[in-house]
């Protein structure tokens, strides 16, 4: 039975990856923070399944900024594969809390690399890097050779972590891969990320639970894909014969406004009556022209994103409509 360890297991990607790895016959171990609440987490269905939790899925308390706890888990679990997904992942918030963002995302990854370097048994590491490393790129679309030019603390922390991983791969021969992940969304996306915020608001407004939707820059553009496609990419990266970096992206760019129009169209409302701009959600700097070229992942891993942008936004809005109809906001 292969054994995987996931940091950030309670997040969107961690929960889908857990399901995928269990399906593939892995025992899955997750690192959770003491402050995480598992009761209502995205792992709820697995955590409460006695055939899974404690048999094939195991959770361990540890903190990325407390190396002793993490080292202990790593030695105890002795995983074959590690998926490092944890970190402060909100770009806007990283301007408010740059030090803790770097502590978790940059130094947390370096600490993990240091621990892996000391392990007796070889382990394969996947690091969830981000398109935010490109910031203001000189090349469009971006691929594995595009120079990093981050423009926010989060992107800078991810750039540090990604560079360190390459250094450890070269210097110490670690089997370690950066997945340079462009935005990826799903019905499990956190509610403070823009796609989920919009889809949930369109559903709540439709049900009479919310009056309006306040957004920042609706002209901002991103390359948005489906998280379920992207976690398949993570797994494929670690099954490849050689440790390499891969860009995961759709190669299509859409605006926040496109998300608004599609989600309000899904619930049959005119967005003009409900959406307003709010300075509080504007960022000090916005990346430009972030579009990924995933040709390498397609060629070497046979990775192909399956869901279209329109399908994704419609599914997210419809799922929120069902969820809210059953359980109104924070109910
Ligand atoms: N969150 C948010 N809220 N974003 C808004 C809003 C709003 O009200 N209004 C406009 N936006 C714009 C942001 O300014 C940004 O340009 C865009 O919507 C997307 O914002 P997010 O959904 O917060 O995602 P992100 O692109 O900053 O970062 C996400 O993707 C990265 C790349 O994959 C995160 O998941 C990162 O962790 C990830 O690395």
Question: Can you characterise this structure?
Answer:
This protein has 331 residues and is α/β, with parallel strands linked by helices. It has two domains: 3-185 and 225-248, NAD(P)-binding Rossmann-like Domain (Rossmann fold, 3-Layer(aba) Sandwich); 194-221 and 253-290 and 307-326, UDP-galactose 4-epimerase, domain 1, CATH 3.90.25.10. The protein has eleven helices and 13 strands. The model has no long low-confidence stretch (mean pLDDT 95). The structure holds guanosine-5'-diphosphate-alpha-D-mannose. Guanosine-5'-diphosphate-alpha-D-mannose binds next to helix 4 and helix 7.
Which distinct ligands sit in these coordinates?
guanosine-5'-diphosphate-alpha-D-mannose
| Largest β-sheet summary | 7 strands, parallel
Count of beta strands: 13
Strand order in the largest sheet: 3-2-1-4-5-6-11
Q: Any idea of the CATH class of the largest domain?
A: Alpha Beta
Overall tally of structural domains: 2
What portion of residues belong to β-strands?
15-25%
Name the CATH homologous superfamily of the largest domain: NAD(P)-binding Rossmann-like Domain
Topology:
Blueprint: E1 3-7, H1 12-23, E2 27-32, H2 44-47, E3 57-61, H3 67-77, E4 81-84, H4 91-94, H5 98-118, E5 124-130, H6 153-172, E6 175-181, E7 184-185, H7 194-206, E8 213-215, E9 221-222, E10 225-226, H8 227-239, E11 246-248, E12 254-255, H9 256-266, E13 275-277, H10 295-301, H11 309-326
Parallel strand pairs: 1-2, 1-4, 2-3, 4-5, 5-6, 6-11, 7-10, 8-13
Antiparallel strand pairs: 9-12
